[in-house]
Amino acid sequence: MAFFFAQFLTGLANAAALFLVASGLSLIFGVTRIVNFAHGSFYMLGAFIGVTLMEILPGHVGFWGSILLTGLAVGLIGALVEMVVLRPIYRAPELFQLVATFGVILVIQDLALMVWGAEDRLGPRAPGLRGIWRIFGEPVLKYDIVLIAITPVILFALWYLISRTRLGVLVRAATQDREMVGALGVNQAWLFTGVFALGSALAGLGGALQLPKGGADLLMDFNIIGAVFVVVVIGGMGSLPGAFIASVIISVLNVFGVTYLPQSTLVLMFVVMAVVLIIRPYGLLGREEVAGEHGQVGAPETPIRPYPPAGQIAVAAFLGLLALLPLFADQFVLILMIDMVVFALFAASLHFILGSGGMVSFGHAAFFGGGAYAAALLVFHFDTPMELAFLFAPLAAGILALAIGWFCIRLTGVYFAMLTLAFSQLVWSLAYQWRDVTRGDDGLVNIWPAEWLSGTVPYYYFTLILGVGGIIFLRHVIHAPFGYALRAGRDSPRQAEATGIDVKRVQFGAFALAGAMAGLAGGIFVFSKGSVFPTELEIAASFDALIVVFLGGVKTLAGGVVGAGFMTLVEDWLTRLEYWRLLLGLVIIAVVIIAPEGIVGSFRTLWARIRHKEDAA
Amino acid sequence: MTLTRRFVLGTTAALALAPAAALAQDGPIKIGEINHYKRMAAFAEPYKAGIELALGEINGEGGVLGRELEFVFRDDQGDPAEAVKIAEELMTREGTVMLTGTILSHVGLALSSFAAEKGYLYLAAEPLADSLVWKSGNPNTFRLRASTWVQAAMLAEKAAETDAVKYATIAPNYAYGQDAVEAFKENLKRLKPEVEFVAEQWPALFNIDAGAEVQAIERAKPDAIYNVTFGTDLAKFVRDGGDRGLFDGRDVYGLLTGEPEYLDPLGADAPEGWYVTGYPWYGFEEGTPAAEFVNAYMESTGESPKIGSLVGYLTAQSIAAAIEEAGSTETEALIGAFEGLTIEDTPIGELHYRELDNQSNMGAYVGTIAVEDGQGVMVDWEYKEPSPYMPSDEEITEMRPAE
To answer: What are the record keywords, sorted (chain B) (predicted)?
Structure first.
């Protein structure tokens, strides 16, 4: 019993830093509706700034003073980021801002490397709090007890701020209806900046508070972000008490998981999240999202139509050029083109459900990697001929999408996104941990194409035909009645239902089709690289696709493809440089600010404006 | 063939007489180096510095085959697919003659498979996975460092000498951690069949919940502990375990724990008394090749060397020696030169690449951690050759797929 209690205390102490970071994220989302992926970066900045300050300021006052100063400093950085990067793009399409926050992550990573160097920093001990107290005979760290004591204080302070001050009233009002708050004369811009700064400060505080238990390193931004999102989603996005309850649940369960199910450390929290979302689609204390509440801003989408003859000729000419490429380009250009086509098909499949279906998936890599793994497993274990194994890639990915979609499709918005993320993490952990079958992160190697495709040129044509064919097929589906039904369900589920469209079934079908097409891309991918590793199933892989779709333009048809091409080229070029992450981050932020409708969307707007002027003249 | 060879040798001799002119004429010999320079900056930077030190020395003495030796450094973001793409570009467009690099084992495995398929040469310097030269080994891949199996076997040998019977293990939950635990268990059980493993902990890599792990190990009441965690996980585990008294009265064996990459950040928190593999650069006798390397490195970079620095240095030395031996930069000739390649004076003495499995004879330093002047160091250390810890030649041949 004493042991249980000691474990419980460990869990509570772990919950402290997690709650601080999560509450910040929840606040920011609640008011600004920004899914802030850079939140982990503020946590990391907090740790590094905290270490630096603690080295300068001595003693008790120095230690606790450093923590407060760190919160202040990170809050200021957060305010700066909000004003420079996010303020210009609040009017952009739904969730577009997360692309900008991704750029911020890259910039902060390289800046932190420049300022603090590559070596990990061990955090200083809290003065006077080294060692243990014995509680019922079990050792409990003194600093853990302090953390456990601090958390309720912070929760209370936040509660007071939100429910007892004027600022809190405005924040709550904005969480419910930010248009109305603006209409009542409140300066929204400063309200948003203030909330963003407060949220960042909380993340910074969390980073500084955990120092005596760990330290500061350059990977901690990505390492915490998964857990933070899980906590915020389980608690209900925007709910502070929810975030608190969820951090405690996750932390305590983790501690018991470590003891009684040591292999579970990778997936436990995602399993919990999946279960909670399946039972309670809006988290423990969240509320239902009203359709169009967030992000349905800006001009309504123009109706889609096939390209005019001039456009069709241009596309045909471009494809002809690609077909002739092996005649004059060197081998590496073909390799780069294969990568690009594979990525374009993957992005197009995500774009299909995201753009036309309005379903934002955070776990699309499960199908890309799933397809790749399906083909690779057949080749690796059964020496299946490549042609047969390849067919299995889209098939298996489609079936996987049917299975995952069955659970996810009943959710909407961010909760849908997070449930797809949870399932993709489950698929990832399966590939990562089931070593007898998948060889874990040693991956499946020597998965090369059949003899007749083994040259670069034949494989280039193979990729071109299937990849471009897949993209054109998806485009065709969008123009077919099925595509119209899908868009109807996106724009107005109720009217669509009233006209006899089974919205959920249409979405389910679209989800499975997108999964199969991603699997096709995965199949082409695995035979071009000769190996597949769990990295292809990681969250990062899902986000690569998500980012290019947004960069290309969600509300366009070619967005995914153009974005993928743009990103492949920019990355290939930038990674040759020393500070490529900084530059790539800045490029992403620049594109986001200059072209808030995405590359294709902004060109279209520009084109329309020019045409309009001509008409007027 | 003879004619070509004689021609090359003749040319080389002629060039050696006038190295300066030759350098201007021929352009450098390029080596493709692919690594995770950003994602694993703490490891990749000292490694790169080691390469650059060796390159300075090699080119200062006239280069190889009378030409300058140059490394083309490229960042793969830690992504195997990206690494394969870059490898393709380096070999087909950049004009590199062979590939080397990567720290992460899975990226190394991807490059190894790629090299075999396309007929290139790949020297895996840092990756530790055993399968790189054994189960997934191929004729195109060579490996420098002592693998997971060998280093774990060295620790198991020491553990078998003690009275401890009940062991707990803690290792990051991925291939390297699982291999490391498996290797330790197998070796220890062979040497001492009565041992039992009472707890196996698998924290997520770089996401350890140290308090919970320490409580779980304490609960199993082991006599001794085998640690594979490293980096930030190690720091948290050591700090939490130290505070709760987990290590009191227990032997602890730490794989790689003594490497400066991991030991330096711990400072005075370094766990005293652990028996570890590592790199005691501070302990070499003046005048030995090992100490000369350390001095040269500190002079050129102003920093103390890490194990990565040594590996980088040996990588460049190996490649230069292989090209000299081959007398050409053709892949076939280079592979032939690497098989059985022997380099006389390296910081670790004679370096040799076995023909059996393309693995070098680089060993490992083992010793006990002590804290001196607020900094962890290895004391009572010794350098161990890897061969006694390897499986038998027959077993290895068995493991290597049809060669």
So the answer is: Amino-acid transport, Signal, Transport
- The answer to whether the CB atoms of A139 and B203 lie below 8 A apart is no
The answer to whether the Cβ–Cβ distance between B202 and A536 falls below 8 Å is no
Residue B303 is classified by DSSP as S
SS3 A583: helix
- Strand ranges inside B285-352, DSSP E: 342-346, 349-352
Tens digits of residue pLDDT in A417-446:
889 998 999 999 889 888 889 888 888 988
DSSP for A40-71, please give it: HHHHHHHHHHHHHHHHHS-HHHHHHHHHHHHH
Which secondary structure element, helix H or strand E, spans residue B284, and what is its range? none
Nearest CA in chain A to B203: A265
Q: How far apart are CA A402 and CA A468, in angstroms?
A: 24
Q: Which of B117, B178, B216 sits opposite A262 (nearest CB)?
A: B216
String of b and e for A224-253 (b: at least 16 CB within 10 Å)?
Answer: bbbbbbbbbbbbbbbbbbbbbbbbbbbbbb
Between the CA of residue A470 and those of A343, A386, B392, what are the distances in Å?
Answer: 12, 19, 52
Using the predicted structure, report yes or no on whether residue A133 has a pLDDT greater than 90: no
Instruction: Give the H or E element holding residue B179.
Output: helix B175-191
Cβ of A215 and B265 within 8 Å? yes
Contact between A122 and B269 using a beta-carbon 8 Å cutoff: yes
Could you tell me the pTM of the whole model?
0.89
DSSP state string for B185-207: HHHHHHH-TT-EEEEEE-PPTT-
B364 DSSP β-pair partners: B384
CB hemisphere CA count around A77 (13 angstroms): 25
pLDDT at A295 over 50: no
What is the count of residue pairs from A and B with beta carbons less than 8 Å apart? 189
Helix pair B2-17, B19-26: axis angle to 10 deg: 120
H or E element: which one contains A558? Answer: none
C-alpha–C-alpha distance, residues B269 and A429, integer Å: 33
What sign has the CA pseudo-torsion B130, B132, B136, B142? Answer: negative
Cross-chain residue pair B215–A255, CB shorter than 8 Å: yes
Closest-CA residue of chain A to B74: A576
> Is B117 close to A535, i.e. CB distance below 8 A?
no
Q: Where in chain B is the domain with CATH 3.40.50.2300?
A: 2-148+286-363, 149-280+364-394
Q: Write the DSSP symbol of residue A308.
A: P
d(C-alpha B285, C-alpha B295), whole Å: 11
Give the tens place of pLDDT for each residue, A52-93. Answer: 999 998 888 899 999 999 999 999 999 999 999 998 888 777
Measured distance CA(A360)–CA(A370) in Å, rounded: 19
- CATH 3.40.50.1450 assigned to domain B2-148+286-363? The reply is no
Angle CA(B181)–CA(B183)–CA(B188) in degrees, nearest 5? Answer: 95
Residues of A in contact with B106 (CB under 8 A): 441-443, 533, 535
What pLDDT is stored for residue A300 in this prediction? Answer: 60
Å between A261 CA and nearest CA of chain B:
9
Q: Compute and round to an integer the Cα radius of gyration of chain A.
A: 25
Those residues with Cβ within 8 angstroms of residue A310's Cβ, 6 or more apart along the chain or in another chain: none
Between chains, do A531 and B88 touch, taking CB under 8 Å as contact? no
More confident residue, A556 or A584: A584
Report chain A residues whose CB lies below 8 A from the CB of B80: 443, 529, 531, 533, 535
Chain A residues close to B84, C-beta within 8 Å: 529-531
Residue A308's φ and ψ, nearest 5 degrees, are -65, 165
CATH code at B149-280+364-394: 3.40.50.2300
ipTM score above 0.90: no
